């Protein structure tokens, strides 16, 4: 048969003058969190809006002229249009609040935020999971707060893959290219020409053009190697997120870190604090050192001090897959030409990524930590875990004392809280948007009448069920599943008047997240789910990385269980999890389940989103839930000790999970009175919403970054760079002196220390130090007091006392002494230690050197 050539032609409508600003709104990611902006498109043609996957730009290109004309003449539409625009204009014009102004003066400060992925909305697919969504939420909250803030990333034309699950339960990964004119971005120009930056690569330069995305108040710059200056191979460098091999990865990271820094310089943007969000972007440190050396003539070491002083590095996972490690040969080959062109020495740079026990490789996390003076993990538990994992960066310092802190992740409320809830808040507590960080304010949730609260939940649950059924049908029709099977699969959700309890589990299928833990005792689970009086439906969704076979195996296991006749309709597996599906599931389920292997869930954020919509968390005490759970707002599974055998832990924690479901969760849900809902359940749901909303939202998170890191980083950067980097130079020279002398420094207790005294006596402490050429001012000698066995006073320390050099002491050694009054009653432990100290240090222990007497 003859096949005719097909041409694609897209006939674009004219946008009528009366609604012309729909185009402007389509170019501001404001739409990604503002439901009423999205409503302006959806109202014009709902089926098309769904077909274009909620993409405003694509919508405006494909919508029929007649429908636009109709909207432009419809008074109701026009009045909504004007309302939405005046709201938008007010948002864009808002100035930073006093709390921000006190900490970050927009005249003199600017934060640059680098990340490999950004998840704003399903229409802009340059994210894969939690890290990207978090970066998107960070930008959105920075915009809400009008922070002086700019973000840098890569534009992936194909983004992350699209997932289908076939009839055998196999994940199939497909990639779809997005042309730039359907994304909410504009090409960045300089002097009327597209701005192009380049980075030296082996045997050639690689070029990138630059796109700008508008996110309310802030700008995101995205580098794109798909430009005619590059070879075909190089054009594909930024094609896919987390695709290719380690050479692709290092190339992308060079573009992000080095290229991204060059973009800001080319645009005349001069950040005063730099936030490296995960190791992928850590090469920016090298480019900034090189730029600083050129501008000031400082040595590499001095430039590194100046650069690190205003840099924050955030680590996001203890799981090895999240930490890029490159072999030395690859580093030499890929980075060599750049380093040579920039006058940086390979060995010195390579040392920044070295590890204690792994001399032959380069670790991007180590580079991030050595090239920054501010570092954090993303929950209290993870901060501790990261301190342990990265302890060898500060070899003589105890992990619990090293400079890694934490800020617990939060989520962007407007993005993830369903509009039905925000409308209710508008009525019940009109200024809720400005009280997002005030836990007392959120007590108002308790005042919402139960029936009202529950009816909103039921509406959202209905929407979730319709969405789930629709998606499930589509997926199974394609796979050729028979009608009767699909019908049985969906019948629990189509007869929601029975109000079946629905449990959601959706996130990346990484093995540590243990998606199948709940199936550990299948007969018992089956009884729980299929009890005719109290049935339960489990809904699963998530992607596994295409190279993660064990992750894909989890999908198959769940698929097979969902097809078992005895479980049919009680286990549902949806394909192609994305942000749109997340919003539906999170706001519609009753219970949000999370069963990670402790302590590998650094934070997790989906449970926060669920809670803000009134879902109740049932989760292992890991990540954010370690701080979020208060006994009344959900259920917690206590992880077994990590020293125990993994299979044993899985079994025990699975039993806890089923015990909780059987004895607490399901009975509470179904203890319904005549009004049709369980009062006890509504109480828990309200507790979940009101306690988690004010503590785990992205504005709280970003303000913690402002106070804890951005403000100090700006100050420390200014301090070290004043007078052409004088202090940075001094500090670098001083560190060099310490490094070469420290191996010969020693400390000993001088004389004997009393073992008993009266509580108001003073105790003399003296140590004798061999300083190996260092001055007494180069070290801080400190006595640390802790309580071993506390009575009712409860305090256990530590308290710190400094020992001072003893003047006029003759001899080779230097004496330091002090007299202390015991800070605690009874038995306490005194330990004396010394570490190098200089006033210009950002953290007193940043050198990682310490000696104990
Ligand atoms: C919130 C979110 C995530 C992160 O989920 P976790 O449970 O924290 O791993 C991943 N993907 C999407 C689409 C999300 O919205």
From TrEMBL:
Residues 15-123 form the DUF3417 domain. GO terms for molecular function: glycogen phosphorylase activity; pyridoxal phosphate binding. The modification N6-(pyridoxal phosphate)lysine is found at residue 609. GO terms for biological process: carbohydrate metabolic process. It catalyses: [(1->4)-alpha-D-glucosyl](n) + phosphate = [(1->4)-alpha-D-glucosyl](n-1) + alpha-D-glucose 1-phosphate. Keywords: Allosteric enzyme, Pyridoxal phosphate. Gene3D superfamilies: Glycogen Phosphorylase B. It holds the Pfam family Phosphorylase. Belongs to the glycogen phosphorylase family. This is Starch phosphorylase. The lineage of its organism: Bacteria, Pseudomonadati, Pseudomonadota, Gammaproteobacteria, Pseudomonadales.
């Amino acid at each position: 048969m003859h096949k005719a050539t097909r041409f694609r032609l897209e006939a674009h409508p004219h946008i009528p003058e009366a609604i012309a600003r729909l185009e402007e709104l389509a170019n501001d990611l404001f739409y990604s969190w503002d439901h009423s902006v999205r409503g302006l498109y959806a109202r014009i043609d709902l089926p098309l809006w769904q077909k274009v996957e909620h993409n405003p730009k694509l919508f405006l290109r494909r919508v029929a002229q007649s429908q636009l004309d109709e909207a432009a003449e419809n008074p109701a539409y026009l009045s909504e249009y004007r309302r939405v625009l005046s709201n938008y204009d007010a948002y864009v014009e808002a100035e930073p609040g006093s709390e921000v102004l006190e900490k970050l003066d927009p005249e003199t400060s600017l934060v640059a935020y680098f990340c490999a992925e950004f998840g704003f909305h399903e229409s802009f697919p340059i994210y894969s999971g939690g890290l990207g969504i978090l970066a998107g939420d960070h930008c959105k909250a920075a915009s809400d707060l009008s922070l002086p803030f700019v973000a840098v990333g890569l534009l992936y034309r194909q983004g992350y893959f699209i997932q289908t699950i076939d009839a055998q339960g196999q994940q199939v990964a497909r990639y779809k290219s997005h042309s730039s004119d359907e994304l909410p971005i504009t090409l960045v120009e300089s002097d009327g020409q597209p701005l192009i930056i380049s980075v030296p690569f082996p045997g050639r330069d690689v070029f990138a053009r630059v796109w700008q995305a508008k996110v309310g108040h802030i700008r995101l710059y995205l580098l794109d190697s798909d430009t005619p200056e590059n070879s075909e191979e190089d054009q594909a460098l930024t094609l896919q997120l987390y695709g290719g091999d380690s050479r692709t990865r290092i190339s992308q990271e060079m573009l992000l870190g080095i290229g991204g820094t060059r973009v800001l310089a080319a645009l005349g943007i001069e950040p005063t604090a730099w936030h490296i969000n995960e190791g992928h972007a850590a090469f920016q440190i090298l480019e900034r050192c090189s730029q600083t050396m050129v501008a000031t003539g400082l040595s590499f070491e001095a430039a590194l001090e100046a650069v690190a002083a205003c840099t924050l590095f955030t680590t996001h996972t203890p799981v090895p897959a999240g930490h890029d490690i490159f072999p030395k040969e690859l580093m030499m080959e890929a980075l060599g030409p750049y380093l040579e062109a920039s006058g940086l020495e390979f060995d010195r740079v390579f040392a920044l990524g070295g590890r204690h026990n792994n001399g032959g490789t380069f670790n991007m996390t180590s580079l991030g930590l050595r090239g920054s003076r501010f570092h954090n993990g993303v929950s209290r538990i993870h901060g501790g875990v990261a301190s342990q994992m990265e302890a060898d960066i500060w070899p003589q310092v105890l992990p619990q004392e090293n400079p890694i802190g934490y800020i617990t992740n939060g989520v962007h409320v407007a993005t993830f809280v369903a509009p039905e809830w925000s409308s209710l808040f508008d009525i019940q507590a009109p200024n809720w948007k400005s009280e997002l960080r005030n836990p007392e304010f959120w007590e108002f949730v308790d005042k919402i009448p139960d029936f009202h609260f529950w009816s909103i939940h039921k509406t959202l649950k209905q929407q979730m069920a319709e969405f789930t059924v629709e998606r499930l049908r589509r997926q199974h029709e394609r796979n050729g599943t028979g009608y009767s099977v699909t019908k049985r699969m969906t019948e629990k959700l189509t007869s929601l008047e029975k109000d079946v309890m629905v449990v959601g589990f959706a996130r990346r299928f990484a093995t540590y997240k243990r998606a199948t833990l709940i199936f550990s005792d299948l007969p018992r689970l089956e009884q729980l789910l299929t009890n005719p009086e109290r049935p339960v439906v489990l809904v699963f969704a998530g992607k596994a990385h295409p190279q993660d076979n064990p992750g894909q195996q989890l999908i198959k296991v769940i698929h097979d269980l969902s097809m078992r006749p005895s479980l049919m309709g009680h286990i549902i597996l949806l394909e192609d999890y994305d942000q749109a599906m997340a919003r539906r599931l999170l706001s519609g389920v009753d219970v949000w389940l999370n069963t990670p292997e402790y302590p590998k869930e650094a934070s997790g954020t989906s449970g926060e989103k669920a809670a803000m919509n009134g879902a109740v968390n049932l989760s292992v005490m890991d990540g954010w839930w370690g701080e979020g759970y208060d006994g009344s707002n959900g259920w917690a599974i206590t992880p077994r000790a990590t020293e125990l055998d993994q299979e044993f832990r899985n079994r025990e924690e699975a039993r806890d999970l089923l015990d909780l479901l059987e004895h607490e969760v399901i009975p509470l849900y179904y203890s319904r009175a005549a009004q049709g809902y369980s009062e006890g359940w509504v109480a828990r749901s309200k507790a979940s919403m009101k306690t988690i909303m004010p503590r785990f939202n992205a504005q709280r998170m970003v303000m913690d970054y402002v106070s804890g890191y951005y403000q100090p980083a700006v100050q420390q950067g200014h301090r070290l760079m004043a007078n052409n980097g004088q202090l940075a130079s001094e500090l670098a020279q001083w560190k060099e002196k310490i490094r070469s002398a420290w191996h010969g420094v020693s400390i000993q207790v001088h004389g004997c220390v009393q073992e008993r005294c009266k509580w108001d006596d003073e105790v003399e402490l003296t140590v004798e130090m061999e300083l190996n050429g260092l001055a007494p001012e180069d070290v801080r000698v400190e006595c640390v007091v802790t309580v071993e066995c506390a009575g009712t006073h409860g305090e256990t320390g530590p308290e710190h006392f400094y020992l001072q050099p003893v003047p006029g002491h003759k001899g080779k050694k230097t004496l330091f002494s002090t007299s202390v009054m015991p800070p605690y009653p009874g038995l306490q432990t005194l330990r004396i230690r010394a570490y190098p100290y200089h006033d210009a240090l950002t953290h007193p222990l940043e050198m990682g050197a310490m000696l104990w007497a």
